[in-house]
Amino acid sequence: MITFGFFPDQATDKAKAFLNVAGLVDDQVFALVSDEKLIEELEAESGDVVLFKNFEEPRVKYDAKEFDEDLLKTWVFVQSMPTIVEFSHETASKIFGGQIKYHLLLFLSKKNGDFEKYLDGLKPVAKNYRDKIMAVAIDTDEDDHQRILEFFGMKKDEVPSARLIALEQDMAKYKPASSELNANTIEEFIQSFFAGTLKQHLLSEELPEDWAAKPVKVLVATNFDEVVFDTKKKVLVEFYAPWCGHCKQLVPIYDKLGEHFSADEDVVIAKMDATANELEHTKITSFPTIKLYTKDNQVREYNGERTLAGLTKFVETEGEGAEPTPAVSEDDEDNEAPSRDEL
User: Residue 40: how many CB atoms within 10 A of its CB?
Assistant: First the structure.
């Protein structure tokens, strides 16, 4: 795969822009052709930029009205990838590290023949939007891909299905209105996304019937706002992950904290599994994260030692002097939420 720039005169603005892009892109081969006879033999014209590849369209010409370095760099990236990219260890870095920050994820089963059944019909739609959205096919039969299903809160019986993710919007997830997977439904899905009419798809567990039975109340996405933003109470919430070692160590201390305040009608001690429940207004990046929501809707984060005395004082003083947006401590680095590169 080679991107040719046909420039007899390398002093032109286009030639300089082409050479600058060639110097910025490490994983692509660029070639400058200045011989006019060779340009003619290759059926090109002076000033053309053409990408030659051995899949799909073997020859693609850059035809944007503007010859802009950023646009050219994005064009080279887009055209060097298949219209629908299959997710793998080899393609993951290009998918997440490329210029396209919106991804249409197609969850398919190879064993069930989904790749053959759906991809050809979806390629025209993917091609129309490929300069804005990268279409990615994920084989859900692969064991290594189960974490992606978990990240989207999906189960195997939902396959085949589609989701859209916006990497630069805190990895916001979107789900199509229809479970059907065809060109029309995907076209409507993408158009609704760009029109701004789609709401984020937020994960939520089912609310347990006994969520309020114990001193430490159980929160899920659906009851979070009702409990936490009650102006008659101050609410301490631990956002945890089931696999987090520090969270497990905190359990007996946090249970004692709940018992300590169980008779106080003004205080609620609560916890939420932040890997299975998502909130549009609160993003959790490390575990455990402990936040106090005061009666006047102030939010203060706990950064002290995870002791009964420290947490008790924090609640009683309403987090006085607490930092609003703390950095992740070195102690918690192993308990950070998975990044997009780890999915």
Answer: 12
Burial 240-270 (b: 16+ CB within 10 A, else e): bbeebebbeebeeebbebbebbeeeeebbbb
Q: Which residues contact 192 (CB under 8 A, 6 or more apart)?
A: 177, 198
**pLDDT (tens digit per residue) in 230-274:** 999 999 999 999 999 999 999 999 999 999 999 999 999 999 999
Length of the chain: 343
Ordered alpha helix ranges (H), 111-162: 114-128, 146-151
Instruction: Report strand pairing: 289-293 vs 267-273.
Output: unpaired
At 222, is the pLDDT very low, low, confident or very high (cuts 50, 70, 90)?
Answer: very high
Tokens of 27: 């994983």
Structure tokens at 5: 């720039």
> What's the whole-model pTM score?
0.75
Residues 6+ apart with CB under 8 A from 314: 236, 292, 302, 304, 322
